[in-house]
Amino acid sequence: MGEVSGTDASATVVDRVTGIVGSAAREDGAPWLFARCLVHASRYEASGRDGDIDLALADFQALPAGAPGRAKLAAVLAELMLGSGTLFGSPRLSWAVALADAADEDPAPMPHWPLTCAALRAGDLLVAAQESRPGFDPRAALRKLEGYAALVDGTPPYADAVESARLAVRHLIVQEDPSASEARRVTEDMRRFTDRLGAPDPGRRQDARDGRDPLRERGETMRLMQEMHACTVRGDLPAMARRMGELRDFALRLPSGDPLRAQLDQALATVGPFLSMLGADGTGQGGPGGWTPPEGADALKVFEDLAARPGLSGIDRAFQLSQLALAELALGTAESVDDAIGHLTETLALSPPHDQRRTYYRFLAGTAHLRRVELSGDTRALRTGTELLEQARDAAASTAHTMWKDISMPLAHAYRLANRRELSRATALRGLRGHAWSVLLESTPDEVQAMARHAAEDALETARWCLSDDAAEDAATALDAGRGLILYAAAETRDLAARLTAAGHAGLAARWQAARSADPAGEVPVDLRRTVVAALAGVPLRDDGTPAAGPGEGTSRLLDPPDAHERRAALQTLGADALVYLMPGDELDGAAVVVPARAPATWLRLPHLNTSRAAALDGFLTDAARGTTARDAADRDSALRDARIKVPRVLDDLCEWAWDAVIGPLLADSRLELPRDRPARLVLIPVRELVRVPWHAARTRAADGTWLYAMERAVFSYAPSARLLCETAWLGPVPLTDGGLVVGDPDTAGAARELPAARLEALAVRDRFYPRARYVGRMPDGGPGPQGHGTGEEVLRWFADPDGGPVVHLACHGIVDESTEPGDSSYLLLHDGEHLAAERVLDVLVQGSGRDIALAVLAACSTGRSGRGHDEAFSLSTTLLAGRVRSVVSATWSVPDTATSVLMFLFHHFLRERGMGPADALHEAQLCMIGRREKPTAMPRQLRERLRSPQVSDIASWAGFVHIGR
């Protein structure tokens, strides 16, 4: 006989067995079906043809349930299907899961069956997540997947399947419960996963037809979708548009009939119009990712077509209708709002009870009805909208829900429209707790900033409602709830293990410590953070991380800012007369909310208090900063010359306006009961752009024609928030000694201009006031300091040294970068151009030894200016305050080298030789600069000569320095 090929031989066997099956009695046919199923399976293993596995599955289905060896055959078929590499994303996955059920009837059907079964079950969970199956619980699914991951323990190809499903479910969870830190972690894990899949792996089977790797394609799709979502969580729409372009390019590389291509096309069609409406391409022309949007009402056609596609499940059609309604609300006409209400009504009718989005749909429908009220005054719409928002709030259940803060503000607005003012205020104030909850779940300042981006505006709107109701104490509480949340999160997560143990959660404290130790960056997963914060806040959680109690049922005030009694107690402890919040007006009047140390809060209407004057200061700040950091001498001189020209015009006008708009009315108001026999002691918390104004330098003409400055009538301190002010007060004072750290103009290797006066200042301060302090940087002659070059490591090492002394004086360059991109926002420029960022300083202080430091003097440009938004108040100076430094003196703009050196020597003179506190010492030094006080005789000759310079008394020379803390 001639040779017979393997294919021909298997075909012959199949034909013969088929004949036997056809002629055998039913009770005798099972073994032959079994045999033919195995032959089909063998051919599939050799060829990879889908038809062969379909024939094998048909034979298996025909086998009687109790046929001998059926469980082992099921395991063989399931193993082959998994090994093909094409199972995930295929309709045959449901067959494979059914085979797993059959195989599990045998305790040990194959040696590797537990691994195969884990991979198949993981794939089924992945599909359940994608299809939103009734009863599907993402967090419960993730717990199962974590168990499967431990079982397969990195063994290919099983581990790839389990990890793919695990990442997909994490992606789903972070979509439903947005967290910037978890979105980043999932993105990073997906990138590592796809990079690994992209590496050559002969053990992973590709599609036999075209060499494609379906698992890698799905992994790449998940990565791009997750990166796009992470950009959304951060509020970075231009970056989201760039990711969308990458996703579109990837989709175009897939065959037009591929199911994955169809899935991507749908996602692009859904997201593209919204990004275009928001102008997220960053150009104002065209659309993101190569997508060209229709205009006007035609833009709705895209969403209408998506919602009308045949074959959609009820849950998917509900989602598409909600997207259509969102676009209609964005259009904003009375007709489009009515259409949105109709589509959202249909959405809620289609959405099943288990749909995770029902809370969001109710919220959206409620806000749509409120929009109808605003357009038409329809009181029926107000009732319906309020009911929908209340249902959404009740479903959210607690501050711990991701939508709590989003629901609360429109619901509070609805109550105000119904003239239920007290309930409106209470609802809005409870809603602000949601911002505090959100930021406590984040790991880095970037991520806290992303989650807190609406907190300040919500707080300001709530405060304005409170003032319209003449509720000044509530207004102060509201304003503080939206401020300094990066600092709040850092302070509240400090010493967490000790706090948990003290609260009776020793096991949770051990988990927290173990998680920090296991991560190279010391980060903790968001689920553990949620559990920890819930324990400290007294908000009970269910096993799936959802709240088990309603609002107000927590046992702790962790999520609330200080109350009226705490604010007054802190002011009395610090010897201050009043805390003053300055609220800007836009189309409305501005206001000052005043919290006296020994009386109830009150407020003043300030019609001329707005942000336009503060904005005029930006040009000066930009020019001065450019001159500070310019390497080229001509550029530097030009920039500084331009800045000097602007200073009289901008700062003089600003300071005169500051008196007329705020300081004059504030000091003259008899209701405040400020002392008349001495200068009042005021702590200011300016809101939004008002933080740029040097309020202590406000001035007016006195009766004799001379200038009267605000600091002649009051001693001013500033505060990032009442939260941090109270914490500083409770910590107590730290005595000064003659030890510490002094940094004098480190060599930046040309990254910025030299500061010869800063070196002279630093050495003079060290020699006269702190002779035992370490000196790093450069000496006045340009040589290196005796104890170091002034590197970041030297500075941080000092902060961690319990014997380092209680004072640090930094005479160097400070830089603020107000970019919205993640990264360093404010930093010191040190030796060899090294950046020592506020973020790094904060991390070291919060996680470090926790030692007590009395005073930090930042004689460096812009060290008191926030690089993360005005109300976040996150700067080099405030990070030190959050790190338990009791008092900080810093600059809010680019200050001149010569004048700064004089002011700093005067400050330390009044501090050390006159025994004044830091706020009073700065106050007296600034009065010296304008000639209201006698200069000390014991000044170094070179510094004393500089006092004769006319620039020394300029507002720009001294008013940029402020005090915060004790």
Give the proportion of residues in helices. Answer: 55-70%
The gross shape turns out to be: elongated
Please indicate the percent range of residues in DSSP E strands (runs of 2 or more): 5-15%
Q: What characterizes the major β-sheet?
A: 6 strands, mixed
Low-confidence runs of at least 5 consecutive residues? 1-5, 280-294, 625-644
Measured on Cα atoms, how large is the radius of gyration? 34 Å
Distance from N terminus to C terminus (CA atoms, Å) equals: 103 Å
Q: Which structural class do the helices and strands define?
A: alpha/beta
Number of H- or I-type helical stretches = 39
Question: Can you tell me about this structure?
Answer:
The protein is of the alpha/beta class. Helices cover 56% and strands 8% of the residues. It contains 39 helices and 16 strands. The strands form four sheets. A six-stranded mixed sheet has the order 9-8-10-14-15-16, with helices on both faces. It has a five-stranded mixed sheet with strand order 3-2-1-4-7, sandwiched between helices. Strands 11-12-13 form a three-stranded antiparallel sheet. Helix 11 (237-252) packs antiparallel against helix 12 and helix 24 packs antiparallel against helix 25 (506-518). The longest helix is centred in the last third of the chain and has 36 residues, at 633-668. The radius of gyration is 34 Å and the shape is elongated.
